[in-house]
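Reopening this ticket.

The earlier resolution said the output was attached, but the attachment link was broken on my side. Pasting everything inline this time so it's all in one place.
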Amino acid sequence: MQVQFSGPVSVFHDRRLPETATPAGYAALIDAYRLSVPIPRVLSATGTKHRIIEQGGWRIYTPRHAPDARLEGHLTFALKNEGLDLAILKRLFLTVKDDEIAELVNQKPTGLYTRRIWFLYEWLLGRELNLPAADKVSYVDAVDTELQYASSGQNSARHRVRNNLPGTPDFCPLVFKTPLLAEFVAKDLKERARVVVSQVPKDLLARTAAFLLLKDSNSSYVIEGERPPQDRIQRWGKVIGEAGRAPLDEAEFLRLQRIVIGDERFVKLGFRNEGGFVGEHDRETQRPIPDHVSARHEDIALLVRGLIAFDQAAENELDPVIAAAVLAFGFVYVHPFEDGNGRIHRYLMHHVLARRGFNPAGIHFPVSAAILDKIGEYKGVLESYSSRLLPCIEWEPSPKGNVKVLNDTADFYRFFDATPHAEFLYECVQRTIEQDLPRETRFLRSFDTFRAGVENMVDMPERTLNHLLAFLQQNEGRLSKRARDNEFAQLTPDEVTKIEGLYQVAFSREPGTES
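Inline output:
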């Protein structure tokens, strides 16, 4: 296939370059082969200056980095400098002829990059090229572990390539090794959590765990804009508390949706059998205005199978928080259900962390509460991929105001860059360990001290005591005149003064009085 690679440009796919430069690697392949794929977060080009520039989503390399203006040159450049983008590689391999890839391998049968290209071609397309097995040379990793996170891998003797891809051809997002993620991994938050928990008495820890579960369950509903009754919040909290005990399979996904929805009169349970999107409708025409288009319903079975296989394969491989981000955000992009996707998406974070033993026994970090506090950043992370995915999806409105996807999009849900998602989830997990867990434990200690002091003075039901505490919290440790004249009119002035003093003593160790 004869293609023409671009010369120097100042704009590429509406993205302005920091200086005029020649697209290289994935950018050059997208342009030359007219690939309709989500544009990578960072693109490469070669410029005229003898320094590497990183700016505005571009990495401009020096002239000496310029690859040969051929398929092999740009593929090799991409693998060497940009890591794996499986969606681009899959679409490229579907576009070029088998003979072109076979010829690359025949020219350099022992080459590190040609063997990786050969392996990836057969792995992504599920068919073998007409090539003999590679000579007995040293194995090379499919994923460059200097650039991206990977599994330990299994050797493919045919290619002399170690298949260290962390998923399967049905689902395999990848995460780049960024300085921020390296910093998070080095902190060993699993051990930090263990130390925090070890310092809490068992009875207090049980109460802390129960509160955090309810907090997480409630926050997950609030994120979806729902205010369900307390029994639904408690029921979902109980499910979160059991996260990680059962392996994922289709039946487990369906069970989770039934629990999340509760009332199924207006929601069709089970995997979607029509299109799906996240967004709004035009008020006049009711035409969909999507922010995100979900996977085609025809692809859901294979994608869910891929999610399940990833969960099983990642059990003892990827960093637990990174694996949780990949699985959870992959699920929410697929959006396999009509409703309940968001809460199950956040449940999957708990599932992976618990199944991998990241949580101390009996504790589930209130990740949803952290997400709720970072809701703008959370939406930005979701949009970091959805905004690049949307231009690649051809769709038309259905008669019911839904979307009908017209092109093949499954690969865009199987393969995406989950780096921002992993960084975000790590931020949330760190917050829950270093702030939420200690803060709630401190609060319960202070509350027990306050309650004991009040009970030594006056008999008061638990509900009334909680009401009293709420008033004190709202008024900086003082009981307002309205509360003294109404709800707590039976307290004497001396008792009020003593109670306010008890509050100040009990909560003086607290940087704040909120739980």
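Reporter confirms the inline version is readable. The mean pLDDT is 92. The longest strand covers residues 15-24.
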